[in-house]
Inverse folding.
């Protein structure tokens, strides 16, 4: 018997219904960033280097993982609508506005430390030292949230 | 000689706020002014570690009675209680007394209080802050593992938590048990059996390790091993009725429904009132498994009447909904779903959250039936009702799963395959949704996912009505397809 069966005995027959393990990405910014949320359109502009500044005038710095990671595959599919090679070319053309990090931990630390930084991270990795932006008025794990991967 | 004032101050310091705020090398910081509350809380944790849930809850309740300002005690009750009213009341008490808690306890309160209100982002932030700040706290990691698997179905992350718990304390028995279940859910039975074996070695005189070994064996399709371990569990403790139930479940999945009913009868004889009804639903399902639909109707109707008499409205509705699942005629199925909904709407003492969960299941079943009957209007009206219910109960995984299952079925029928995949993946432990998801993957060009999920569905051995109506038929279809593509595999071929 696991705790699941132990606690859920009253409604066991209702099925072990629960959400699956589809990845949801949180859009994170540093704590001093006052932007509460963005529309999908504005978020896409930020991540495609079409918006260079936040409303308070600070430059936007993208902090991203390697394109081969599951997080970036979801981002490329949902935000960029590009092939990986096209995406790499886009990054190369805007190298001054992007930092590529090697781990989730490094991404969180970079966003925390760099004013104007914005990154994408698995929602279950977020900590209290970054702010999470709403996308189209929704936070990750709310129904209909945009940045969800298969 | 020190003055009396200094002595009193010293005494206050010793027995005051921080006197029983113990920091152990590997345990959770506990702040309570009451030594009794502290002892009771630790006893509660020990009981929970052995999955003696009711004893653990009793200890937590006594702990907060001894110190009503004991915030950590209140939040543990919020998390572990099975009573929704108690969960809410204890959450409010935890928040009201949060100021008296230590820094680690405050993070735990922020995490679990937010989680119980579906405020997932601040909940996860607080949990991760606690895990980073207290990397050597075994109870914190164990609790995080439970939350991640129980509330969020994050199996891989839960495994990491349980493995960290083992690293901190290699004797922490339940971490092996929970990790084993996580691995089994991923289909990694080598790891699952390695962990469960260690669990049995750590607590050889408890029945639960043998019960877990049995359940994992059953999940892996090793039915004879399952029977052996359930019997070993009952030998250790004949009053561990879940193992008696497990014998019935195993025979049911093995296809021996008569033996299943005989074993279920023994379990029901000694069961509590609610268990008698729940386990009678399992008995009724045995008739579905052997294709005796008239027998199933009779058995489920009897359970519905029994549940009605005991005022277990959610179980009464479940009996009618279960009947609707295997009806061959659409109108009969829809009528049974109407009876289920009506049962839920009568005045009852059952907590509203349980009624809502069953209502969600009734509505999803109505959507699926409407789609099967080409009644798009009924499907659309019902999904709207289900969406409203899901939005009002955002934290409830069962309701959310039902909504996504139904929405996925609608999207699949409408040919919106990517949408169907998105929805159905949120309900992928339900056999009906799994079957639909395989179709959605195939139509969406995700053949690899379809193949993997088909193998998983064919190997699904859980004693649920959804499994009974989906899996045996699915296995037959797979076997037929396999024999078509390779006639040598068709046992009938030699007679042709």
């Amino acid at each position: 018997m696991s705790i699941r069966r132990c606690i859920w005995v009253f409604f066991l027959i209702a099925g072990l219904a629960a959400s699956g393990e589809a990845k949801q990405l949180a859009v994170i910014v540093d704590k001093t960033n006052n932007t509460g949320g963005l529309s999908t359109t504005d978020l896409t502009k930020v991540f495609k280097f079409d918006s260079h500044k936040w409303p308070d005038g600070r430059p936007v710095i993208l902090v991203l993982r390697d394109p081969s990671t599951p997080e970036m595959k979801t981002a490329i599919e949902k935000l960029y609508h590009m092939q990986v090679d096209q995406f790499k070319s886009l990054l190369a053309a805007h190298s001054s506005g992007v930092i590529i990090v090697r781990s989730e931990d490094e991404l969180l630390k970079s966003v925390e430390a760099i004013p104007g930084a914005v990154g994408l991270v698995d929602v279950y990795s977020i900590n209290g030292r970054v702010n999470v932006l709403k996308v189209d008025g929704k936070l990750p794990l709310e129904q209909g949230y945009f940045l969800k991967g298969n | 000689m020190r003055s009396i004032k200094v002595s009193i101050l010293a005494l206050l310091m010793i027995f005051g706020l921080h006197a029983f705020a113990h920091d152990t090398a590997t345990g959770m910081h506990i702040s309570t002014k009451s030594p009794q509350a502290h002892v009771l809380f630790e006893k509660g944790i020990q009981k929970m570690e052995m999955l003696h849930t009711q004893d653990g809850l009793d200890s937590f309740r006594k702990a907060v009675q001894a110190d009503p300002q004991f915030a950590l005690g209140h939040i543990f009750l919020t998390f572990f209680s099975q009573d929704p009213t108690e969960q809410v009341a204890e959450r409010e008490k935890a928040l009201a007394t949060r100021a008296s808690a230590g820094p680690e306890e405050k993070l735990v309160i922020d995490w679990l209080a937010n989680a119980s209100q579906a405020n997932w982002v601040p909940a996860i932030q607080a949990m991760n802050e606690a895990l980073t700040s207290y990397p050597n706290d075994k109870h914190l990691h164990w609790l995080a593992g439970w939350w991640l698997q129980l509330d969020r179905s994050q199996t891989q992350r839960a495994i990491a938590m349980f493995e960290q718990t083992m690293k901190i304390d290699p004797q922490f028995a339940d971490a092996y048990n929970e990790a084993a279940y996580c691995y089994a859910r991923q289909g990694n039975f080598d790891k699952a059996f390695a962990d469960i074996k260690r669990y049995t070695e750590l607590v050889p005189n408890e029945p639960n390790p043998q019960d877990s070994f049995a359940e994992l064996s059953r999940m892996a399709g090793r039915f004879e091993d399952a029977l052996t371990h359930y019997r070993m569990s009952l030998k250790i403790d004949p009053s561990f009725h879940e193992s008696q139930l497990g014998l019935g479940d195993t025979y049911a999945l093995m296809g021996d429904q008569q033996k299943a009913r005989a074993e279920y009868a023994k379990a029901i004889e000694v069961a509590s009132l609610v268990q008698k009804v729940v386990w009678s639903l399992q008995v009724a399902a045995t008739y579905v498994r052997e294709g005796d639909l008239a027998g199933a109707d009779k058995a489920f109707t009897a359970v519905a009447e029994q549940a009605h008499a005991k005022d277990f409205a959610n179980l009464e509705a479940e009996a009618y909904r279960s009947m609707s699942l295997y009806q061959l005629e659409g109108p009969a199925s829809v009528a049974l779903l109407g009876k289920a909904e009506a049962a839920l709407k009568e005045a009852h003492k059952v907590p509203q959250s349980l009624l809502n969960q069953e209502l969600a299941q009734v509505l999803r079943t109505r959507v699926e039936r409407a789609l099967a009957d080409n009644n798009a209007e009924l499907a659309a009206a019902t999904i709207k009702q289900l969406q409203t219910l899901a939005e009002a109960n955002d934290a409830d995984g069962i309701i959310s799963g039902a909504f996504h299952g139904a929405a996925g079925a609608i999207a699949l029928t409408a040919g919106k395959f990517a949408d169907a995949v998105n929805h159905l993946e949120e309900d992928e432990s339900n056999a009906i949704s799994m079957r639909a998801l395989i179709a959605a993957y195939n139509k969406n060009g995700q053949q690899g996912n379809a193949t993997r999920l088909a193998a998983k569905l064919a190997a699904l051995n859980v004693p649920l009505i959804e499994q009974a109506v989906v899996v045996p038929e699915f296995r037959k279809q797979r076997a037929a397809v396999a024999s078509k593509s390779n006639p040598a595999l068709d046992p009938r071929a030699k007679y042709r």
Notes: The domain at 20-134 of chain B is CATH 1.25.40.10 (Serine Threonine Protein Phosphatase 5, Tetratricopeptide repeat). Chain B touches chain A through 70 residues (CB under 8 Å). The CA atoms of residues 276 and 495 of chain B lie 47 Å apart.
